[in-house]
Design a protein that fits this description.
The protein has two domains: 182 residues, TIM Barrel (Alpha-Beta Barrel); 86 residues, Beta Barrel (M1 Pyruvate Kinase, Domain 3). 33% of the residues lie in helices and 23% in strands. It has eleven helices and 14 strands. The strands form three sheets. It has a seven-stranded parallel sheet. The chain has a five-stranded mixed sheet with strand order 6-5-9-8-7. Strands 4-10 form a two-stranded antiparallel sheet. α1 links the parallel β1 and β2. α8 crosses α10.
Length: 294
Amino acid sequence: MRRTKIVATIGPATATPNALRRLLEAGVDVVRLNAAHSDMKTHSNNARLVRELASELGRSVGILVDMPGPKIRSGLVANDEVELESGQEFVLSGLEDSIGDAQHVSTTLPDLAQWARPGDEVYLADGAIVLRVLESIGKDVRTEVLRGGPLRSRKGMHLPRAEAHVEPFTARDALALEMAIAAKVDFLGLSFVRRAEDVERVRAMLPKRGMRPALVPKIETAAAIDNLAGIIEAADAVMVARGDLGIQMPARRVPLLQKEIIRACNMAGKPVITATQMLESMTRSPLTHPRRSQ
């Protein structure tokens, strides 16, 4: 029996009966449903389809629902896309109702200016664009663009210092949890976990009787690294979120941290999942630091 298992994320292209059947026949052990995308009815239907196909194939296949978690985003931009040039100045605003352009954009974090410090790096477009904080003025943060690129409306934004103040469990997480329990899935991937208490909070929401999904906190923040031992103890399994860790800290640290997390989980007797980046995104957006890629 293989000790290493395959966890595969399915989306619109692989959620058909034929495509899913081929994935299971190829050796997929756990099917991951990403609740950050699509609607809960679609995920529920996909979970049922996985169960039916696994039964037909005589296989035991797990289902993991990955909770969406909070997401800090930049706001709307004119014509849905603007181009930022390396070396230019760019302003992040705490006011959500303004339309962004090549000089500024709003954010979903109204208190951004309180937590940004000169020299901090801010990542826009899910890490593709890198800014360096120059100063905070009122609710605005003035930055310099270190690595430019196209910025579209409502894309993911990261500022590690600010993320410690974000509530990890959202209303959409509550909907995903309800769906996952009803579908009797095997695993719950917990997003934005920073301490053991974040895991225990979700565990307290699980039903007292019947099937209870195993909790799999994702190690994706610097705070989670600081509190790793407690998180592993509270977890049923752990996921190493390599892509997110590469934004939260220098990418060169990620391979070593991955090994340390896996070793700690092995010592604790807890299963551990290493999440890879999609190969196509690695060719288009390798997320190398602008000063280190030269």
